[in-house]
């Protein structure tokens, strides 16, 4: 009897902890019955009701359902080449870098010029699945978001009040056999921000060094969505690039050595994909498709030409 009562009490206390309503949001991997009581992605709407609205991000991109849009020409970047010095910070959810100089993105049907504010990452565990967007169900090991605000706004908060106030560029990563030397300095600096709330100075990095070469950025997806963390504000024009950035297994694993607020390993820092809810995902005109189409046209015309002479 005594044992029964104490096990009922134990069960009750576990249930109580599991359903307790602590305020801060967290990722699913941090939601652990009995030890943490933060709010995981399933209940982010309790943190901010916008998280349950109808144009949420990330999404799974179903390539067969994307619509080709010829207005999605290559983006124009300014200030991306410029080397800068900034603060790298572990904010307890991710690692973020403030962009201190003027760097902009425009064209590609963006309808305005957007200024880079900060960039950050979402990753898995030791190079395992970790991107936020997925393509035909495939989750890449990591994703970088370069957050831009429309240049006519004073700050990011003001831009978030407009349905097209923010433009985020999303880049996937893939595991490569050799390490990516362009990332050496940045990944080395991660060692200085292991603890939640810590920061370090990084010098001599440029945005163009972190992203693919221009020739590898012509293929991308575009849709209307939201921030992928609370407040989940629906103010984002999303551009998700098709070609991933290569990093070695060790380079990808370096991110898993960071720690969340609370001391757990910072891993699986992604929000699960959200319902598309009738939104159309557009894709840029693929030069590869165009080339094969031209080839096909040539074949058809020459075949027709041949048959005429037969
Ligand atoms: C970086 O950390 C120091 C203390 O460790 C703190 O004084 C400073 O405000 C932090 N800077 C940023 C940008 O968070
Ligand atoms: C695209 O990237 C690959 C390797 O990631 C590289 O070999 C190729 O030269 C790049 N293409 C262009 C057009 O930059
Ligand atoms: Zn993000």
UniProtKB/TrEMBL annotation:
The UniProt entry, under Gene3D superfamilies, shows: Alpha carbonic anhydrase
One GO cellular component term, please give it: plasma membrane
Which Pfam families does the record cross-reference, listed alphabetically? Carb_anhydrase (PF00194)
Q: How does it sit in the membrane?
A: Lipid-anchor; GPI-anchor
Enumerate the InterPro entries for this protein.
CA4/CA15, CA_dom, CA_dom_sf, Carbonic_anhydrase_a-class, Carbonic_anhydrase_a-class_CS
**CDD domains named in the record:** alpha_CA_IV_XV_like
Question: EC annotation?
Answer: 4.2.1.1
Which GO-annotated molecular functions does the record name?
carbonate dehydratase activity; zinc ion binding
Question: What binding partners and quaternary form does the record give?
Answer: Interacts with SLC4A4.
What function does this protein fulfil?
Catalyzes the reversible hydration of carbon dioxide into bicarbonate and protons and thus is essential to maintaining intracellular and extracellular pH. May stimulate the sodium/bicarbonate transporter activity of SLC4A4 that acts in pH homeostasis. It is essential for acid overload removal from the retina and retina epithelium, and acid release in the choriocapillaris in the choroid.
| Family the entry assigns | Belongs to the alpha-carbonic anhydrase family.
The identity of this protein, by name, is Carbonic anhydrase
Q: State the organism of origin.
A: Astyanax mexicanus
């Amino acid at each position: 009897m005594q044992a029964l009562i104490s096990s009922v009490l134990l069960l009750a206390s576990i249930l109580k902890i599991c359903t307790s309503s602590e305020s801060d949001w967290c990722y699913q991997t941090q939601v652990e019955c009995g030890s943490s009581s933060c709010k995981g992605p399933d209940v982010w709407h309790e943190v901010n009701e916008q998280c349950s609205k109808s144009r949420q991000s990330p999404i799974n991109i179903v390539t067969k359902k994307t619509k080709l849009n010829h207005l999605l020409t290559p983006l124009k970047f300014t200030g991306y080449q410029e080397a800068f010095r900034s603060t790298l910070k572990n904010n307890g959810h991710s690692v973020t870098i403030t962009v201190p100089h003027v760097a902009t993105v425009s064209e590609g049907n963006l309808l305005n010029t957007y200024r880079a504010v900060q960039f950050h990452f979402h990753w898995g565990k030791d190079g395992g699945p970790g991107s936020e967007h997925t393509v035909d169900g495939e989750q890449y090991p990591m994703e970088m978001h370069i957050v831009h605000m429309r240049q006519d706004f004073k700050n990011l908060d003001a831009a978030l009040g407009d349905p097209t106030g923010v433009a985020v560029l999303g880049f996937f990563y893939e595991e490569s056999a050799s390490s990516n030397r362009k990332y050496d300095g940045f990944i080395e600096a991660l060692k200085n921000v292991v603890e939640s709330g810590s920061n370090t100075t990084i010098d001599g990095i440029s945005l163009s060094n972190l992203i693919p070469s221009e020739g590898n950025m012509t293929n991308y997806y575009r849709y209307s969505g939201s921030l992928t963390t609370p407040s989940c504000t629906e103010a984002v024009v999303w551009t998700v690039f098709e070609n991933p950035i290569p990093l070695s297994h060790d380079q990808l694993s370096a991110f898993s050595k960071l720690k969340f607020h609370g001391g757990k390993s910072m891993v699986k820092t992604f929000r699960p994909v959200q319902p598309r809810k009738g939104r159309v995902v557009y894709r840029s005109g693929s030069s590869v498709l165009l080339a094969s189409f031209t080839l096909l046209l040539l074949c058809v015309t020459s075949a027709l030409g041949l048959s005429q002479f037969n």
